[in-house]
Write a structure and sequence with these properties.
Chain lengths: ~260, ~190, ~575
């Protein structure tokens, strides 16, 4: 009786797993970037691991139901079977790894970005910096960081004077243009993550990290902090707006320059 | 115990019948080798952290007090003395071994005292652990090494109190720490 | 009293006083019990902390964020280090190794005893952090700088100090223990017990102990450096930090250096936990299915391969850390490769049950729970290890689901199975079967309901280490409802562990008397008296071994097992042919 119950439970677990994957009460957020390849690899992984899970549990359920009375057979090994299972597994691993590394290579070698935006994490809000008409982000220095100047811009540097600083966001990005995000932090490690964009990256004090994407959908999204950063970690939310390139350009030109903000 | 009239089946090839296990090292030394493996991991982690930190732009070289050379000599002599003591003890001459072992211990303590003095010299010259990565690493590296040597000194004292049992293991431990020190010293000199 | 043996290893006479028999005992069996009881008690504290976390997740506002993070940190650290590692190595390792190898005790009984007391001290130091100003550290069990030692994280002043000191003490204890386990396996096996005749439980614990000796030092170095950063304001890990408008007295350090040191330890650590568990499962499956473990040689090789490869996968915890992105190619490859020996082991357990005589005893029920959950956890590791897939999933509930499946469920149910299996030998009593079955069903079904749906919350993008999801626009109300459901199940599963605790204590006094070998197992520990006395084998020499540990259902033999020490029976005085 318990045997049948256990076998049934194992089967039900597989059914439950497949049901969750097919009915999808909780699933990816709708994609808004060029990183749809990640979704593809996750789906491939779900199929392969789902089959493996089903195989294991059904085998387990069968074995315990069928082999209750014995006598057991003395089978200490089976070199041929073991070799086959080894190669079968290695093949499965290769099928997962190959596309994973292929698309990772795209992530590691960004195209020439049309736009570079700096993302600053601080306890506990996100701020952003855009290059001005000169297309360059100005130099920064931790010694100059202050509440009024969270990026630590040098007011005398011409490349910095025309930058646009947006403290607390929102982050505006133009549709369809590859954008490189440069991430920095002033205090502790944070991570910038927009689920619809799929990718995330840590912002580490003392370093500049980077990640790139091309927004593919207009809309308003939410950025969350994805690296534990203290008491306000769950409150470090930001807004991300993907707008048309014209709207983006118009907005950028209308913003006050850093020189004005620093009173210079 | 099961009894049977027929021959029982044979276990898989290589896993069945046969003689006893291989003879290994005598008991005290296998344990020491295992301990030294763990310590090697410790000092390897330390050295890699050192090398990584050394590569960052704010590294400023530290002056090395010439005292460190004297300390190195003391540690070398300590190893030699302890080795002599261990060999005498292995030959059954406990009475002759004791003064050598004690000399080794004293020289080791001399090394430690010299290291502490080197610390005072550097601190006096303004090289505090904070604000100076090379300084911080110097104190950390010499501190961890010194603490392990001190532990070895305690083990040595205990071995002497037990009529020299464990003296050979102590000597090898001491030699190991000498080797580690030579490596660490070379690293310090080269950075 | 000198007990005869096969090695130049003397154990002392039987202790006489209460203190030397039960408190400061050098007997590996007493030390095993001390480790087990301490680990289970501190684990219970860890479980209560998880209830606090679950209450906050279901009913946001129950705890303030500081308390949530303190509970989260202590829960994680207690479970991984002070429960799982201590119980598997210190508890099972101490009990099983000498008995399964035919030894009288460990190689260095005095050091072994010390290792327990240093472990206990490390536990007390950790628990003391509840009583210091600011409370325990809330830095997460990964203790990443700079947040671990700066304002903005609870316990950044006293709590983190006690945590670091506690870890240093634990590492000393683990080294003293590991020294014993490794040396005993190498040197104190009884006559006839070659390495390839050792039970897989010993192999698992042995390989894990070697790993521990090589991995813990990296954590030791990291903790010392963080202590110096915190107390002397060195800058090993601390870059220039401007926090809440203030410039802190640090400069030039690298937070990533901590991550490399921590994970160089941290990844092998999880295998240090799972390898002994795998060893235990091999015993449970073969004994209770009356069938030799399938592919013993491959099982041993897999343990060693997992151990070796696990030292070169660590940066899969750092794919999104900002480290050199090219490292991702290397670590993704090694990480997915380490799945292969784990898969081999899984196939071999399944093939052991195949055509066996599968008796649904309580230990085997827990072994089946292990197989199910280890497979789930292992398979989700393939998602996270594949570098680009980790980018959306890192720091989401997918990771939480993954590591709870392997560490929080698989390792724990292996421990439960092991306790139900060896309790009769250790105490001379059988555990109550009905309570055992109830415990199994509640734990197995309950943990599945808690952790399986979490994978999907991770696919959604729900971040981890959040006490509340207020304000997250992409999280639907159904996810909040799921959180409430999970909390309810978690509390029920937690309560059902009381059945287990009660069973352990009640059966000690009132349980049915256990025969010497209730499971009819072939390994040596079952040949010792029940419970084994001082020196394990009495005044007779220890058993001599003639075969491997898995002679179950040998064809043509009236018994369905042959103990390792049963002498080969010669038919008509003939030669011992057939034995290699």
């Amino acid at each position: 009786m318990q045997r049948a119950l256990l076998a049934a439970t194992l089967v039900l677990m597989v059914v439950g797993a497949f049901a969750l994957a097919l009915l999808r009460p909780w699933w990816f957020t709708p994609l808004a970037s060029n990183w749809g390849s990640i979704d593809g690899i996750i789906l491939l992984s779900l199929v392969l691991t789902g089959l493996a899970y089903a195989g294991v549990n059904l085998f387990l359920a069968y074995s315990l139901a069928r082999y209750a009375k014995g006598p057991a057979q003395y089978i200490p090994d089976d070199p041929l079977l073991e070799r086959r299972l080894f190669w079968f597994t290695a093949l499965g691993i290769a099928v997962l790894l190959a596309p994973g590394l292929y698309f990772y290579a795209h992530l590691v070698r960004p195209p020439q970005p049309k736009l570079t935006v700096e993302v600053l994490g601080q306890q506990w809000l996100w701020s952003y910096r855009y290059p001005g008409p000169d297309g360059k982000l100005g130099a920064t220095d931790t010694a100059r960081v202050s509440p009024a100047n969270p990026f630590g811009l040098d007011p005398k540097d011409p490349a910095a004077r025309d930058d646009v600083v947006v403290v607390g966001g929102p982050l505006r990005l133009p549709l369809g243009m590859p954008v490189q995000l440069l991430l920095r932090a002033n205090d502790v490690i944070h991570a910038f993550y927009v689920p619809e964009f799929r990718i995330k990256m840590d912002a580490v004090p003392g370093m500049v990290t980077r990640i790139w994407l091309t927004p593919t959908r207009l809309g308003a999204f939410q950025a969350v902090c994805a690296e534990y950063c203290g008491l306000g970690h769950a409150r470090m939310l930001g807004q991300v707006l993907v707008v048309s390139p014209q709207e983006f350009q118009a907005w950028l030109e209308a913003q006050p320059r850093a020189a004005q903000a620093l009173g210079q | 115990m099961p009894r049977v009239g027929e021959k029982p089946p044979a276990p898989p090839q290589g896993l069945g019948g046969g003689g006893g296990g291989k003879e290994g090292f005598p008991l005290p030394h296998t344990g020491l080798l295992v301990l030294l493996a763990a310590l090697t991991s410790l000092f390897a982690a330390l050295v890699s952290a050192y090398v990584v930190r050394m590569g960052l732009p704010d590294w400023r070289s530290l002056p090395k007090p010439p005292l460190l050379w004297l300390n190195t000599l003391l540690l070398l002599l300590a190893s030699l003395a302890l080795e002599r003591g261990a060999r005498l003890w292995e030959g059954g001459a406990l009475r002759e071994a004791r003064p050598w072992a004690r000399a080794g211990g004293a020289l080791g303590l001399g090394f430690l005292a010299g290291q502490l003095l080197a610390w005072r010299l550097l601190l006096g010259a303004g090289y505090a652990p904070a604000g100076n990565p090379a300084g911080a690493f110097f104190y950390l590296v010499t501190g961890l090494h010194g603490l392990h040597l001190l532990g070895g000194g305690v083990a040595l004292a205990w071995a002497l109190a037990r009529d020299g049992r464990g003296l050979r293991a102590c000597a090898w431990y001491w030699h190991y720490l000498l080797g580690v020190w030579l490596l660490l010293f070379a690293l310090l000199l080269g950075s | 009293m000198e007990l005869p043996g096969y090695h130049d290893h003397r154990i002392g006479p039987e202790p006489r006083s209460f203190w030397t028999r039960y408190v400061f005992s050098q007997d590996h069996k007493v030390i095993a019990l001390q480790y087990t009881v301490t680990a289970l008690l501190v684990g219970a504290i860890g479980m209560v902390l998880s209830w606090a976390m679950r209450l906050e997740l279901a009913f946001p506002g129950t705890l303030d964020p500081g308390r949530y993070y303190q509970a989260m940190t202590l829960h994680g650290m207690i479970m991984v280090i002070y429960l799982l590692t201590a119980l598997l190595l210190g508890g099972f390792g101490n009990f099983l190794i000498p008995l399964m190898l035919g030894a009288r005790d460990m190689a260095y009984p005095f050091v072994n005893m010390l290792s327990y007391w240093v472990y206990l001290l490390s536990v007390l130091v950790l628990l003391a952090s509840f009583f210091v100003p600011g409370g325990p550290t809330g830095a997460g069990w990964t203790l990443y700088p700079p947040q671990a030692i700066t304002r903005g994280t609870p316990g950044y002043d006293w709590g983190i100090l006690l945590m670091l000191v506690s870890l240093l003490l634990f590492i000393v204890a683990a080294t003293m223990g590991g020294l014993n386990y490794v040396t005993t396996v190498l040197q104190l096996r009884t006559k006839g017990m070659t390495l390839m005749r050792m039970p897989l439980a010993v192999w698992g614990i042995f390989v894990a102990s070697v790993m521990a000796l090589l991995a813990f030092p990296a954590l030791f170095v990291g903790c010392v450096m963080m202590l110096l950063d915190r107390t002397l304001h060195t800058s090993f890990f601390m870059p220039a930090v401007i926090q809440f408008g203030q410039r802190l007295p640090y400069e030039g350090g690298s937070p990533l250096l901590w991550q490399h040191l921590f994970w160089f330890f941290g990844h092998p650590e999880v295998y240090i936990v799972i390898l002994p568990a795998m060893g235990l499962i091999s015993e449970l499956v073969s004994v209770h299915a009356r069938k030799p473990i399938f592919g013993y040689r491959a099982m041993v090789l897999s343990l060693v391969a997992i151990a070796a490869i696990s030292f070169v996968v660590w940066a899969h915890h750092m794919y999104t850390s900002g480290m050199n992105p090219y490292f991702g190619f290397f670590f993704a490859t090694t990480t997915l490769i380490v799945a292969i020996p784990s898969a081999i082991k899984t196939y071999n357990w399944l093939l052991t049950l195949w055509r066996g005589k599968v008796q649904l005893t309580v230990p085997l029920l827990f072994a089946i729970a292990f197989l199910n959950t280890f497979v789930v956890g292992g398979l989700t590791g393939l998602f996270l290890g594949n570098v680009i897939v980790d980018f959306p999933l890192q720091d989401t509930y997918f990771v939480v689901a993954h590591f709870h499946m392997v560490m929080g469920v698989a390792a724990i149910v292996a421990i439960f199975g092991g306790i139900y299996h060896w309790y009769p030998k250790a105490t001379g009593r059988m555990l109550n079967e009905t309570l055992g079955r109830l415990h199994f069903w509640a734990t197995f079904v309950g943990t599945y309901l808690i952790f399986f749906p979490m994978h999907f919350l991770g696919l959604l993008g729900m971040p981890r280490r959040y006490p509340t999801f207020e304000g997250l626009t992409f999280v639907p109300p159904s996810a909040h409802a799921l959180n409430e459901f999970i909390t309810a199940v978690a509390l029920l599963v937690g309560l059902s562990q009381l059945l287990f605790g009660f069973n352990l204590v009640y059966s000690y006094f009132r349980g049915a008397r256990a025969p010497d070998n209730p499971w009819r197992a072939a390994t040596l520990e079952w040949q010792a008296p029940t419970p084994p006395p001082h020196g394990n084998w009495g005044p007779e020499p220890p058993p001599v071994v003639y075969r491997w540990a898995y002679e179950y259902s040998p064809p043509g033999f009236p018994e369905d097992f042959i103990p390792q020490n049963a002498p080969p029976v010669l038919a008509g005085g003939g030669a011992e042919e057939g034995y290699a």
